[in-house]
Amino acid sequence: MNDPLIVSVSPHIRSDVTTARIMWSVSASLFPATLMGAYFFGPRAVITVALSILSAVLCEHLYQKALKRRSTVGDGSAFLTGLLLGLTLPPVVPFYVPVIGSFVAIIVTKQLFGGLGFNIFNPALIGRAFLLVSFPKLMTSWREPASAFLLFDARTTATPLGILKEQGYEKLVEVFGDRLTLYSELLIGHRGGSIGETSGIALLIGAAFLLCRRYITWHIPLSFLGTAAFMAWVFGGKGALFSGDPLLHLLSGGMLIGAWFMATDYVTSPSLKSGQIVFGCGCGFLTMLIRLKGGYPEGVMFAILIMNAFAPLIDRKFHPRTFGAKKQKSGGVP
Amino acid sequence: MTVTSFKGGIHPPEKKELSAHKPITGASPPARLVIPLIQHIGAPCKPVVKVRESVKKGDVIGAPTGFVSAPVHSSVSGTVVAIGEFPTATGKLVPSVTVENDFKEEWAILSDNPDYMSLSPDEMREKIRAAGIVGLGGAAFPSIVKLSPPKEKPIDTVIINGAECEPYLTADYRLMLERAVDVISGLRIIMKVLGVERGFVGIEDNKPRAIHAIAKAVEGLPSIRVCTLPTKYPQGAEKMLIKTITGREVPPRALPMDVRVVVHNVGTACAIFEAVRFGKPLIERVVTVTGEGVREPKNLLAKVGTLISQLIADCGGLREDTAKVIAGGPMMGFALPSLDVPVTKGTSGIVAMTAGSIAHAESFEPCIRCGRCIDRCPMGLMPSMLSIYAEKGFYEGAKDYGLFDCFECGCCTFACPSKRPIVQLIRLAKSQVKP
User: Fold this and answer.
1) Is the preceding omega at residue A4 within 30 degrees of 0, hence cis?
2) Nearest Cβ partner for A118 among B366, B372, B419
3) CB A325 to CB B252 under 8 A?
4) How is A99-153 classified by DSSP, letter by letter?
5) Which residues of B touch A21 (CB under 8 A)?
6) Which residues of chain A have a Cβ shorter than 8 Å from any chain B Cβ?
7) How far is A268 from chain B (nearest CA, A)?
8) What is the per-residue pLDDT for B290?
9) Which of B355, B400, B418 sits opposite A19 (nearest CB)?
10) How far is residue A315's CA from residue A331's CA, in Å, rounded to a whole number?
């Protein structure tokens, strides 16, 4: 018997789910997508992702050491931020690009706001947004996916959404041959795009893992994707309403990685299920608004970032019903 | 009868297999008992015996000083050797009477009532009051108060709480298995006292043998039904139990009687039966002594006032790696600073936990707003916000988030991946502001 006995207040047992376990599990769930990125875009892509992760972890560690705080790199959140940033970069970028992106993500977006749990915006997405506006040319030059892993000298290409924006739907189908090939190539990931966003099937495997482990719920991703698909169907067609191609929009760009892995970030999304649905719908709406009417071919990143800013507001509006209380307790709360 | 459950809750490891198969056995009689004069919620008792006075088993030694109170009786025959303050399981010093056991087990004169069901409700109430019965589920609220609702609060349903949702504990389970008929007799007495025609026994579906035993005991009694509850903590919390069985929600700050329901624990029903049938006061109860740290877990019938260290000795003592001993269950029980504290009417179990089985976080991390606590909270609160407000010292602000609706079940704290002491912070906030 331990002497003296430990005395603390109840509860005396805890679940074995920890923040670190969640973060490392999400990182693990992105492994299939990373693998497909490596397969299609070669060693340069692997180096880009590795650099992004390494610099994110280093930034967090050095910042906390400099402030004489406990280093929290073990909780996996910096690793995950680095991984997510790396996966949203084009396959071939100069080596300084992921380093700068990780610095902005970890130091500016996360640590300066108080560290894990206190950041308003998704760090990886702010890192990417910073890179996009700083290096617009580098960040939008895409490589043709090559099935041969050791092909260093791939040709440049445009993303499906880029073709859609510039040349229209018919041209896009023509490039891929027919619609069925278009969908299957999008699902497998054989298309131009960011390293980790192209393979729909790999992302969905990761998402299924997270759903099974209950680390995420369906509320944000499905309301996000559902709203986007609905808008794509109604407004996405040439001329007539209700003639768009929702499947194309769901499978292209960063829609899947954004909806399942970025918008679901706990810290920057609402805590309550009802609020999460509003958040997801907002993300879907803004994404399609940018894609269909905006200057950029892709809108997932900005949509999620804008909704991140609304998350605290949504949380304030949506409250659970207190047990036994007559009606929803909204308002009155500071 | 199967039902849908309340919203929220958790599924901690049940750990009931350690002691569920052990029949109730008598604890070895202690040489000396320390009987606290406050064992219930409400006014303390004043001692009515003097040092060196001899007492019989069942003699009143502490008389209540108010309506919300319950008399305290001697659990053995013997001599009063001391009256003074003594520590209890919660760490508080409480006026207590120390009795030296003469091992003669001489009873005070009890009034036997073979024809007890023909007593009037008021006669029954008097017997229950005199027996000093309190809620044996842990809260120790005087039962007589629940059995005396004001006229403007009619009662139509009585529920016997056999959920026993706390992990490890099996005292109620054993009672339902071994004394099903007595439990049902107790329920029938309660129904007669309250003039109620509808009774339920709620049992979680992880106790099929208890469900079977109680179902057998209610055969031929159409007014009483067994209700199988989904296994989920805190299913045994009064409000959750009422919601699951009747669909009624007790409003915030209201009592079960406000929705026409009275709930009593399985052990309480048994004690009420013994009080009305035999005139027997509440001087002993079933205590589950269990946990990975106990060499031989048991369900012991222990006299009130027996030191917990003696019960543990009855169970072969503690293993070397025991790190924490809890009075009650691991979700809402009290960690004991010393094992030399007495069993009281509210002690449902003693759980000895080893270093490997307890959560002892030295530090905690910031809230990552994952929302697990909100999903688990059976009261529909936002524990994350309550803990953040309390952490920052904004206690008044916490009231807007339903601070005083929290009944401290601890689901939020169990589920928190950042290991934040949420319910502990909530308790801190509650102690700093008025409701």
Assistant:
1) yes
2) B366
3) yes
4) HHHHHIIIIIIIGGGTSTTT-SS-HHHHHHHHHHHHSTTGGG-EE---SSTT---
5) 417
6) 1-2, 4-15, 17-19, 21-22, 72, 75, 114-118, 266-267, 269-273, 319-326, 329, 332-334
7) 8
8) 97
9) B418
10) 11
CA gap A111, B118 in Å, rounded: 74
Structural domains of chain B ordered from first start: 111-278 (3.40.50.11540), 372-432 (no CATH)
- Position A326, amino acid: K
Residue B312 CB partners (closer than 8 Å, separation 6+): B289, B294, B318, B325, B339, B350, B352
- Pairing between β-strand B349-354 and β-strand B284-290 as defined by DSSP bridges: parallel
Is residue A329 scored above 50 in pLDDT? no
The dihedral over CA atoms of B229, B230, B231, B236, expressed in degrees to the nearest 10, equals -40
ipTM confidence score: 0.90
Asked if A325 lies within 8 A of B251 by C-beta distance, the reply is yes
**CB distance B419–A14 less than 8 Å?**
yes
**Span A191-223, pLDDT tens digits:** 889 999 999 999 999 999 999 999 999 999 999
Nearest chain B residue to A18 by CA: give it: B417
Mean pLDDT along residues B59-75: 93
pLDDT tens-digit readout, B178-187? 999 999 999 9
What's the token pair of residue A293?
A: 């009417």
Contact B53/A at CB under 8 A: no
Q: What is the pLDDT of residue A83?
A: 98
- Strand bridging mode B157-162 / B199-204: parallel
- Asked if the Cβ–Cβ distance from A117 to B378 is below 8 Å, we say no
For the record, the structure tokens of A70 come out as: 């406990």
Q: Tell me whether B233 touches chain A (CB under 8 Å).
A: no
- The dihedral sign for the CA sequence B184, B189, B190, B191: positive
- A2/B335 touch (CB, cutoff 8 Å), yes or no: no
Nearest CA-CA partner of A142 in A124, A178, A166, A173: A166
> Chain A: nearest CA to B399, how far in angstroms?
9
Q: What is the DSSP letter of A269?
A: S
Residue A157, helix vs strand vs coil? strand
Distance CA B305, CA B55 (A): 14
* Residue B393 Cα, gap to closest chain A Cα (Å): 15
Residue A273 CB: number of other CB atoms within 10 A? 16
> What letter would DSSP give residue A92?
S
Find which of B169, B246, B365, B376 to mutate to test the A interface (most A CBs within 10 Å of its CB).
B365
- Give which of A271, A318, A333 to mutate to test B binding, by max B Cβ within 10 Å: A271
For chain B, the first-to-last Cα distance in angstroms comes to 39
User: In degrees, to the nearest 5, what angle opens at C-alpha A264 toward C-alphas B405 and A230?
Assistant: 110
Identify the residue whose tokens are 């009650």: B328
User: In this predicted model, what pLDDT tens digit does every residue of A145-163 receive, in sequence order?
Assistant: 865 444 455 567 888 898 8
Spatial contact of B256 and B246, defined as CB atoms under 8 Å apart: no
Q: Which residues of B touch A320 (CB under 8 A)?
A: 374, 377, 380-382
